[in-house]
Automatic annotation (TrEMBL):
<keyword id="KW-0658">Purine biosynthesis</keyword>
<protein>
    <submittedName>
        <fullName>Adenylosuccinate lyase</fullName>
        <ecNumber>4.3.2.2</ecNumber>
    </submittedName>
</protein>
<dbReference type="InterPro" id="IPR013539">
    <property type="entry name" value="PurB_C"/>
</dbReference>
<dbReference type="Pfam" id="PF08328">
    <property type="entry name" value="ASL_C"/>
</dbReference>
<comment type="pathway">
    <text>Purine metabolism; AMP biosynthesis via de novo pathway; AMP from IMP: step 2/2.</text>
</comment>
<dbReference type="InterPro" id="IPR024083">
    <property type="entry name" value="Fumarase/histidase_N"/>
</dbReference>
<dbReference type="InterPro" id="IPR008948">
    <property type="entry name" value="L-Aspartase-like"/>
</dbReference>
<feature type="domain" description="Adenylosuccinate lyase PurB C-terminal">
    <location>
        <begin position="329"/>
        <end position="449"/>
    </location>
</feature>
<dbReference type="InterPro" id="IPR047136">
    <property type="entry name" value="PurB_bact"/>
</dbReference>
<dbReference type="Pfam" id="PF00206">
    <property type="entry name" value="Lyase_1"/>
</dbReference>
<dbReference type="GO" id="GO:0016829">
    <property type="term" value="F:lyase activity"/>
</dbReference>
<dbReference type="InterPro" id="IPR000362">
    <property type="entry name" value="Fumarate_lyase_fam"/>
</dbReference>
<dbReference type="InterPro" id="IPR022761">
    <property type="entry name" value="Fumarate_lyase_N"/>
</dbReference>
<feature type="domain" description="Fumarate lyase N-terminal">
    <location>
        <begin position="61"/>
        <end position="308"/>
    </location>
</feature>
<keyword id="KW-0456">Lyase</keyword>
<dbReference type="InterPro" id="IPR020557">
    <property type="entry name" value="Fumarate_lyase_CS"/>
</dbReference>
<comment type="pathway">
    <text>Purine metabolism; IMP biosynthesis via de novo pathway; 5-amino-1-(5-phospho-D-ribosyl)imidazole-4-carboxamide from 5-amino-1-(5-phospho-D-ribosyl)imidazole-4-carboxylate: step 2/2.</text>
</comment>
Length: 463
């Protein structure tokens, strides 16, 4: 049997590529190398602009042409860096040589030695990762996350007044509304989103062991901490003054923990919606031409939510591993983070794929109000809570002599179904005031939703 042509191993680069392709702009090897080129060029320009070591600011046209190396970075550049790395066996050194070639092409050999000046590879790498992760999260992942939240908010408002039997421990419980339950998820996701948006993307630029030693020897009179801080912040990052050879990755651990937390809230949403579908609270809107089952033509499977569950689990497993391992580096440096960080795109890719599926799944379900009403009408016993609470209030106010209202309702309702007539008869026989009795007689499971509808207002301020 002849071998297959080269194939992607990861489904993110194969079957699911259309849903995650935007991440490749940042969290691919090419995206990382483009960021490295940017950092190298920006550092060289920073040094010349500050007239370091006798240099002078470059002519505006040369600055434009140098910045175009980053702006126009394409396949030929990707291939050239790969060729250089095949010789250097060092990714950042290959980028340095690539930048030097671009300087030579612009007849800028007089400033070539300022390329990678005073830098260890990690000075370039940590800034490049911070830039690519920031741009991927803020430009790709967060917008997809926000679209899911927006759709959940829309449905929460739409269904805010739709009464629904709650199920605590899988058993019939005090009614709520579908909108309020969706609003709970929106509120949870908004809190985590705010934490993700508050992420500090840190960067270091302080040499081989974080001491500025080579810089200080090259120019003892320069304020290298100020220079480092100005350069890092010029990239839109937060300066980290105290590091080893590497930036300590704590900000990455914080970010990945937060995204993993968001994943788990979304996973909870998926399992709940899946359950609502299974008990008929949501019906699925068939997609024309789609097959639900290879043998059972009647089925419309909730595959969007099942697919999302699996991808959220994979994403969180990777994010948890990244958060746990990146914060540890032996002494002043080891290379475990080099391989680990190359999987950031995979971790976010599975989460992004899940977001795509959740959004699609939410757009393919419809509330089955008949099923909700039927379930409520078959579970009048859930009003037992309301009755015994009113009786307690009546006892406290001196309008009842009942000794143990909870036990009384427990005997009536626990483990058995009762209907409206039986419940009304029970209420009519209670030793309570007339007004309270009238209130309870008028109560129905569908009307026993408390402030559920009003509580949805809390998510309107978040949107």
């Amino acid at each position: 049997m002849p071998p297959l042509p080269p194939q992607p191993i990861s489904p993110l680069d194969g079957r699911y590529r259309p849903a995650v392709t935007e991440l490749g702009e940042f969290l691919s090897e090419a995206g990382l190398n483009r960021a490295r080129v940017r950092v190298e060029i920006d550092w060289l320009l920073f040094l010349t602009e500050h007239r370091m070591f006798g240099s002078t600011p470059l002519e505006p046209q040369l600055v434009t042409e140098l910045r175009a190396v980053v702006d126009d970075f394409g396949q030929a550049d990707i291939d050239r860096i790969a060729e250089l790395e095949a010789t250097t066996r060092h990714d950042v050194k290959a980028v340095e040589y690539f930048v030097r070639e671009k300087l030579a092409a612009l007849d800028l050999n007089d400033v070539a030695e300022l390329t990678h000046f005073g830098c260890t590879s990690e000075d370039i790498n940590n800034l490049s990762y911070a830039l690519t992760i920031r741009d991927a999260v803020e430009g790709v992942w967060l917008p997809a996350f926000e679209r899911v939240i927006a759709e959940l908010r829309r449905q929460a408002v739409l269904y805010r007044d739709e009464p629904m039997l709650a199920h605590t421990h899988g058993q019939p419980a005090t009614p709520t509304t579908m909108g309020k339950e969706l609003a709970v998820t929106v509120h949870r996701l908004e809190r985590v989103k705010a934490q993700i948006e508050d992420t500090e993307f840190l960067g270091k630029f302080s040499g081989a062991t974080g001491t500025f030693a080579a810089d200080l020897v090259a120019d003892p009179s320069a304020d290298w901490q100020r220079i480092s801080r100005e350069f890092v912040t010029s990239l839109g990052l937060v300066w980290n003054p105290l590091t080893t050879q590497i930036e300590s990755h704590d900000w990455q651990a914080e970010l990945y923990n937060r995204i993993s937390h968001a994943n788990r809230i979304l996973h909870n949403l998926c399992t709940d919606v899946w359950t609502y579908i299974s008990i008929g609270y949501f019906t699925q809107i068939p997609v024309a031409g789609a097959t639900g089952s290879s043998t059972m033509p009647h089925k419309v499977n909730p595959i969007r939510f099942e697919n999302a569950e699996a991808n959220l689990e994979l994403s969180s497993a990777l994010l948890d591993s990244l958060a746990a391992t990146l914060v540890t580096s032996r002494l002043q440096r080891d290379l475990t983070d080099s391989t680990t960080q190359r999987n950031i795109g995979v971790a976010l890719g599975h989460s992004l794929l899940a977001l795509d599926n959740i959004l699609g799944g939410l757009g393919q379900i419809s509330l089955n109000r008949d099923a909700l009403a039927r379930d409520l009408d078959e579970n009048w016993e859930v009003l037992g809570e309301a009755i015994q609470t009113v009786v307690r209030a009546e006892i406290t106010e001196g309008r009842s002599q009942i000794s143990d209202p909870y036990a009384l309702l427990k005997e009536l309702t626990r483990g058995r179904r009762i209907g409206q007539a039986e419940l009304v008869a029970f209420v009519e026989g209670l030793d309570i005031g007339a007004e309270a009795k009238a209130r309870l007689v008028a109560l129905t499971p569908a009307g026993y939703t408390g402030l559920a509808s009003a509580l949805v207002d809390h998510i309107l301020d978040q949107g």
